[in-house]
Amino acid sequence: MARRTTSGSTGSPTGPRNRTPQPVRVRRRSFGDFVMAFLAFVALLALVVGVPGALAVFVGWPLPHGMPSRDWLTQEITVQTFLHVLTVVVWFAWAQFTACVLVEIRAALSGVGLPGRVPGAGPSQLLARQLVTALLLVGATAASLTPGLSQLGHSAAPEGNHKGTVAAAQQTPGLLSPQQAKATAAAVAEQADHVAAQARSGNGRHGATKFYRIQPPEGRHHDSLWEIAQRHLGDGRRYKEIYELNKDRLQADGSRLTEASLIRPGWIMEMPGDAHGGELVEMPDAHISPAAQKQIQQYDKSGHHAHGQGQHAQGGGHASLPAQRGPATGAVTGADGPAEHGRQHATASQEHSFGLSEALVGAPLLAAGLLAALGRRRRQALWQSALAAVGGRRGMEPPTPIGDAQNVQDALFVGADPEAVRLLDRSMRGLAAALAAESRPLPVVYAAWLTRGDLHLQLAQPAGKPPAPWRPGQEQTFWMLSRADAERYDDIDTAAPYPGLVSLGTMDDSRLLLNLEAVPGIVSLSGRESDRAAVFASVAAELATNGWSDRMTITLVGFGEDLTALAPNRLRHLDGIEALVETMEAETRQRRGALGAAGHDSVLTGRTGPAQHTRWAPHLVLLAARPSAEDARRLAELAADASRLGIGYLVGTESDELPGAAWELQITREGRLLAPLLGLELDAQLLPAAQQRAVVELFAQADPDRDPDGPTTTPPFLVDITEQGRPAVYARLVGPYEIIGLDTPEDDRGALLQEALALLLMHREGVHPRVLAAALWPRGVTEDVRDALVERLRAWLGTDPDGSVRMRADATGRLILAESVVSDLDVLRSLYHEATQGKGVDNRAVRGRLLTDALGLVRGSLLEGRPESRYGWLSHEIVDAQLPLLVADIGLALSAFHLEKDRAPKAIEALEAALRTAPADERLWNELLRATHATGDPDRLRARAADLLSRSGARGLPPRTEALLDELLPTWREGVPAAG
């Protein structure tokens, strides 16, 4: 990925990058530091000198003064003997602790990063480290006390100061006030220029070149560039510097580093000049073997060649500048370390070869919202089709997406992070509930940052100490919640406090969500029309489908009429600005009056406490067309009080300025979202026009009102149900999972292989390799592990007698199973299709046999008894809704078959069998009542009515079922209590 420089208003590189500059605070030594140092000195003196002195004075020498005789073994064991044994133990403990102190002092004074380990001295060495650190605290430099500036001790003062300040300025994401940004922009620019000049002059490398050898894995721990940077550079985020130094250089095994997440044990990494630590090697080094020295020397030579090419290409060699580091790749929860989120790095490398939408793969919250909404829409279509069927049954199969729609659906599967959405929603509602319990109002939140799984809220002003488990952040205007604490939250029945949060993009390892309804005025967006449209579409789609909101209204003007299909209850489209102004003037007056009548200062006080039932849903306006001067003035007047009323405005403009704009954003041609006065520079979250059309197509295909005939009646894959069509591999998915025709995998990867096969069996149209990886490893996986599983799965499935493989890749790279690999779900669909649309239509005996065989295949629910920790991807599927409907259809068809010949008991038996898999299907209830009535036994019908009433619970019987009972048994209401 090409390096980027900060763009000015026109999008051209005009100056140094400004990644959220923060004022650098130099930590000064306090009185408490001196007290801690004194106490540490006293403790060390007592432990290192006092302990042996006390032992010598009060106990003496515990060991015998001469060689013990045989009589010594038969002597009586006295209290003095125990004291001597204990003294020996204390002497050994003292010696070990003293060794730890010496090791820690040596490491601290020499500047070596990680001190050596004293064998068996875990707790002792930790105590020694803390005491030595406290003792040396008063002598440390300001640089060593400031996070991000530890490298200053390894370089000349001017260069180190500039470099360190830039690093510290990048540490904490945040929205700066205009005053803060102006105060620091000049300093950051000067620092970046100085660092760039340092790099061009070749002074960035400190002393001899340093190298690191990738360590082999220990248990589940694998070495990663992030951890190497954390250990030897003091900041894991600097792993990109190591990557740039070693990218595409030939290793001894003939391979090259192409992805930061894909490194191999034994590889050599050249390190930045300020790297430190005992594991590093500087040449020449007499402590390593001649073979290792030769290997490192050869690698070093390849580096000189590579650096020369890089400087020529970049016009000065900025490869290792912290201020020039590459962007985040859209980590799902904000983290961007190669060890934690290999899936994102593998995603970027395969983007063009597989044709998935990078915009959606890198937008985890947006993708999760779209996928959840799409699933709800498809289930609604299925149920509506089933319940509306009269005189004939409709099918269970929605159209299979193709082309761009299929690629976008795959991208949604790969990119979606529903867990992040769930944690964000629970965290926000938990905060609201905790504040309400303390009778405290909700603070105004401008933004939320997701950083390595942790959540940071940026407040408009200090709001005191946050309620537990929230903690104060790095500033008084930040509240922070760790991922571990967020996972402890349960579902809370309270209003969503900040439904206006929406993702704008990522910066390094952080994802920014801006609270549109809290902005004190209009947010303007400038840039090319197509770029602005991609931002507007992304914002609209996420607001319409996100999982951390309740009710809201989103008004679209100047774009997105087709986007209303995503959420008709949230999205509405207006034709022009005049209609918008009239609408918002009326709503503004109404909200002001409602707040005054309720006695609230703002909508936030209406979302917690006794009045939380009012909800105070936000109204967000997305205006893509630039308003006229008069309309802009009227909108500015409306927006002046909008944040108090829960109304937000995002307005597009051709120029950089818009009257009444409180915050100004700019989208560049390169996809960067800039806000210089706010100190923001993000990789923007976009929904380009092509992906927008494909998303809309997915929702249109799932619209239950689009096609009066409902879903198709033809299954996507029909099985030869004759004896000649016996499959080579048969998997039973309806009920407990069983596989026939394959050997059980012997290693511990068997569960993965079986899960992968189940996913492929449910998608006969093919599964994208990245979709397979995202399903099996929802927390991320590297490309090599994914490819290894695919090869292992191919080998496990084997080949047919004619030599053809049972799993192949089609032209798009999707994995497809051969027709010889079949599931009982395939057979179930084929039997029902053949009975109702094939040979069974004209042959009653064949129809009865096929329906009976089909119902006999049903052994329970889908993948019954599956491990809770696996098969999470089923939450994105609709097969769990399709299967009960299909079984109900089979039961209904078989019941009708028997009732044609007045075999009511057989019909009841078929319906009861279907009810075991589809217990809530009202059609089965009604048909069961009719079949029971056909027996001519009123008492049996009354008992059946009582049974159905008990199943219905507190809701009671459905209206149509009650009406049917009134027809079949008018006295059922009197007899049900007695029968029950």
UniProtKB/TrEMBL annotation:
Pfam families: BTAD
Superkingdom of this protein's organism: Bacteria
UniProt record, GO biological process: phosphorelay signal transduction system
Keyword annotations of the record: Membrane, Transmembrane, Transmembrane helix, Two-component regulatory system
Annotated region described as Disordered, given as residue ranges: 1-23, 292-351
CDD domains: LysM (cd00118)
Biased composition (Low complexity): 1-17
Positions of the Bacterial transcriptional activator domain: 823-969
InterPro entries: Bact_Kbp, BTAD, LysM, LysM_dom_sf, TPR-like_helical_dom_sf
Keyword Transmembrane annotated: yes
Stretches that traverse the bilayer: 34-61
PANTHER family, alphabetized: PHAGE-LIKE ELEMENT PBSX PROTEIN XKDP, POTASSIUM BINDING PROTEIN KBP
The protein's name in its UniProt record: Bacterial transcriptional activator domain-containing protein
Organism: Streptomyces yokosukanensis
